[in-house]
Task: inverse folding
């Protein structure tokens, strides 16, 4: 697990997940050299992706999905780090947040 907020920020930037002008469909910055890799996926999953995105967009779709998962992993690390440093969020604070943003 990453040890500090600075390390999380550097990893996020190195992975191209930091805010920037060139973004994918879902707001992720996806720039830089590409490397061809081989992954094994269930046939039903690959068929569903190809059907959804059309010809020639499979790699972009998978790249965006992996980038989103990396962001979620980094957020989980940040959450764990904040819990370790400050303790869990109190029920009172959670109730206050729920009332401030009832639709979330």
Result:
């Amino acid at each position: 697990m990453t040890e500090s907020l600075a390390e999380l920020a550097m990893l996020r930037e190195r992975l191209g997940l930091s805010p920037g002008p060139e973004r994918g469909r879902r707001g992720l910055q996806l720039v830089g050299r590409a490397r061809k890799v081989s992954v094994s996926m269930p046939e039903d999953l690959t068929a569903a992706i190809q059907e959804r995105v059309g010809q020639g967009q499979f790699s972009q779709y998978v790249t965006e999905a992996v980038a989103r998962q990396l962001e979620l992993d980094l957020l989980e690390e940040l959450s764990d780090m904040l819990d370790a440093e400050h303790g869990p969020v109190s029920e009172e604070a959670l109730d206050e947040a729920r009332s401030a943003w009832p639709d979330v």
In short: The radius of gyration is 18 Å.
